[in-house]
């Protein structure tokens, strides 16, 4: 500490305490931040299985993204939800009115592939 506490410094002890306090606060900061991380807002979906996604582009100017979702919910959703290995089915708007997102989750790749062919 001789380079910081010379004869010109009248309060060397105070400087050392400030230095130690600063050092300890830097060490403790990550611990304090991690203690206050927000909790997730939902539980994660199943992590085992196989996920298939599709983006459908609407080419019929008379159909909206909601029309396509409704058509799939009435036609395909009742079929896919009863297929072997089914876990989850989702249809969603994308923010682009000419594109719709679909997702299926199944126990295995083979079962998911069968659902993809059925779509």
Question: What descriptive keywords fit this protein?
Answer:
2 domains; 4 helices; 119 residues; alpha+beta; flat; Alpha-Beta Plaits; 20% strand
Description:
- 41% of the residues lie in helices and 20% in strands.
- With 119 residues, it is α+β, with helices and mostly antiparallel strands.
- It has 2 domains: 1-37, no CATH class; 50-118, Alpha-Beta Plaits.
- It has a 3-stranded antiparallel β-sheet.
- A hairpin with a 5-residue loop joins strand 2 (86-93) and strand 3 (99-106).
- It is flat, with a radius of gyration of 30 Å.
- Keywords: Membrane, Transmembrane, Transmembrane helix.
Percentage of residues in strands = 15-25%
Radius of gyration: 30 Å
* Helix-strand pattern: HEHHEEH
CATH topology of the largest domain: Alpha-Beta Plaits
Output mean pLDDT: 76
Compute the number of structural domains. 2
- Walk across the major sheet and give the strand order: 1-3-2
What general form does the structure show? Answer: flat
Total helical elements: 4
CATH class (first level) name of the largest domain? Alpha Beta
Q: How far do the termini sit from each other?
A: 74 Å
Number of strands: 3
Reported for the largest beta sheet, the result is: 3 strands, antiparallel
* CATH architecture level-2 label of the largest domain: 2-Layer Sandwich
Low-confidence region ranges: 1-6
Q: Helix amount, in percent?
A: 40-55%
Structural class: alpha+beta
